[in-house]
């Protein structure tokens, strides 16, 4: 329809995409075979790509998803595996009308398996450079730290020589915080964020996906992040809604993810209307598209179906996304 075309053509920025979450079941099984990685034999979901796909349709929570997410990424071994994964994402991004992408990855989930950080980064960077040249899609990389692991491990991962080199060279722009949320409060990562801030890195954190609104305010006050990933629980705190609107903090909202992981019952319960009415800035993103059955354009379409937004509202959402991006001002002007 013309509306689908309109949504497709909007110059989208994606700010919340885990590269490991772009691993399709097809590629997962191919790499498991090629790299000789044994998948769990005691879980029937791993019998075939089709069975696994089916299992993905009945996640019960963030942690239930994360269990499959960490097993899935265990098939990624060589730089070429990481490159192919990111390249696969960029193909979808191109057809969905993405112009600029800020991409998360989880270094600790690979170094803990004996994969060197430089291998991961090399693969991702190769795909990003190719996407810029051949597809005209600009991108930035963001290392996320895993909140379910002991805090000292995030600090030593941050201090790793190869990781530090990637920050200093500008290969990686900022840090994020992801994985299981409840019970892993922002405060635990104050020192990590203080170090990153001192180095001039950009800062974001997952907050208020499953966890309480106080994790959002604590991420702002203690971690001093400049944006919030998810943030949907914000809607339960009217005062905090006003603050986020006033301070123009961008939320990177992932509507399909929120439904699939049972954070909300249906798309209409994602507080899109609340955010629009209060002047809260947000972008719409896909999170882990291969696991949740929808890339960014699917998220745009589902939001449109649920909220029947006007052309003006869509244009303001897309503009907020460009303005909230971490790319150079010159790039933003090209996109506006
Ligand atoms: N890692 C990958 N996707 C995630 C999500 N939606 N929340 C927390 N950690 C994640
Ligand atoms: Zn996420």
Automatic annotation (TrEMBL):
It is found in: Cytoplasm; Nucleus. One of its GO terms (biological process) is hypoxanthine salvage. Its cofactor is Zn(2+). Binds 1 zinc ion per subunit. Its EC number is 3.5.4.2. Zn(2+) binds at residues 16, 18, 206, 287. It catalyses: adenine + H2O + H(+) = hypoxanthine + NH4(+). The active site is at residue 209. PANTHER family: ADENINE DEAMINASE. NCBIfam families: aden_deam (TIGR01430). Belongs to the metallo-dependent hydrolases superfamily. Adenosine and AMP deaminases family. Adenine deaminase type 2 subfamily. This is Adenine deaminase. It comes from Amniculicola lignicola CBS 123094.
